[in-house]
Specification:
Helices cover 39% and strands 10% of the residues. It has 343 residues and is an alpha/beta fold. An 8-stranded parallel sheet has the order 1-2-3-4-5-6-7-8.
């Protein structure tokens, strides 16, 4: 189904034509799914590579943020008005925490503190090109200007993922509007995953995610923080978590087992998440699940190292095989972003 032009609201903006056939034809299908682009290798390929090079196993954080220090904000990287951070998240603090925790690399998600100004995160990636990968923030402006920005951030600045924040869409509009579909389609063409941040609940956005995955099967999806699904306390919550598990039918969907402090109903080390992790692994496979800290928000909760160690603690309750834990703690994200974090 061609996407075509936006409605008369913005008649001068043309969006790329995207269809199942055109997207699939532009990529090479592989064995992990029917339609995954060739840059996202199959589980069989990934396992073979890991077995031939056991030293390639590293701990990689799939979800963290970094923003300017107050001094950096005053000098060069200003905060977006009204989004001044309430806790430190500057590069030196991040590097210190990663070193202490034995984390080798990370995917930096553009923080709302700088909104669509990516200059700070871009500078961090340039300083540490082998340590960090960037996930930019999609701008769903109605004039379609975010589409060009996405291309520039990927092709010029080297970002390798993009975040969809549904609360940035114009009031009353969904991520499945013309702009949203154009951005999602373009991400598939560029070979970058789309991360979804469903802060107010997966139930509010699951239909949009399903529609996008169905219409554009070549675009890889990362669902942040277990879709913000907590251990169920009622039927509605159980139903929402069941819908999350059903997303496994889309082979391009990956789950971030991240920000455990946000989704647990218990204190550290968040043992109530063991049943959720067990079900997610059963549905998706460990090679489609990745740990993320949500630094720096994790620091006042349990410390950065504590956030990492909590995963092993939760996994031990299942119990989860060591091989599965290795996928979650680094191998999944390493295979997803091929060529990064090499030993």
């Amino acid at each position: 189904m061609a996407l075509g032009l936006l409605k008369p609201l913005i008649p001068s903006i043309a969006f790329p034509h995207c269809s199942h056939s055109s997207l699939v034809a532009a990529t090479v299908p592989i064995t992990i799914s029917k339609r995954l682009p060739s840059r996202f290798p199959s589980a069989k390929m990934a396992t073979a590579e890991a077995n031939t090079n056991p030293n390639s196993i590293r701990i990689i954080d799939s979800h963290l943020h970094v923003w300017a220090s107050p001094q950096e904000a005053a000098d060069k990287y200003p905060y977006f008005p009204g989004q001044e951070p309430s806790l430190p998240g500057h590069l030196e603090f991040l590097l210190q925490n990663m070193e202490e925790a034995g984390v080798h690399g990370a995917l930096i998600v553009q923080p709302i503190n700088h909104k669509f100004d990516h200059s700070l995160v871009t500078s961090v990636m340039k300083k540490h090109p082998t340590k960090f990968v960037g996930c930019c923030l999609a701008d769903p402006a109605e004039d379609g200007s975010g589409l060009k920005q996405l291309e520039e951030l990927v092709l010029k600045d080297g970002y390798r993922a993009v975040r969809f924040n549904p609360y940035l869409w114009p009031s009353g509009q969904k991520m499945t509007n013309d702009v949203g579909k154009a951005l999602f389609c373009k991400a598939g063409e560029l070979g970058i995953p789309v991360g979804f941040m469903c802060f107010k609940g997966l139930d509010l956005h699951i239909a949009e995610i399903q529609e996008l995955c169905t219409e554009f099967p070549s675009t890889v999806v990362l669902l942040d923080h277990l879709g913000f699904c907590k251990p169920s306390t009622n039927y509605e919550e159980s139903l929402t978590f069941s819908e999350l598990l059903k997303l496994s039918r889309f082979p391009e969907v990956y789950i971030k087992f991240s920000a455990l402090f946000r989704v647990s109903r218990m204190a550290y080390p968040y043992q109530d998440l063991a049943p959720l992790l067990s079900q997610v692994v059963s549905s998706f496979g460990a090679n489609r699940i990745m740990w993320g800290s949500d630094f720096p928000y994790v620091v006042p909760e349990c410390g950065y190292k504590g956030g990492k160690d909590a995963v092993s603690s939760v996994a031990s309750q299942i119990p989860l095989p060591t091989s599965d834990l290795e996928w979650i703690m680094g191998k999944t994200v390493m295979q997803l972003f091929k060529g990064q974090w090499l030993p």
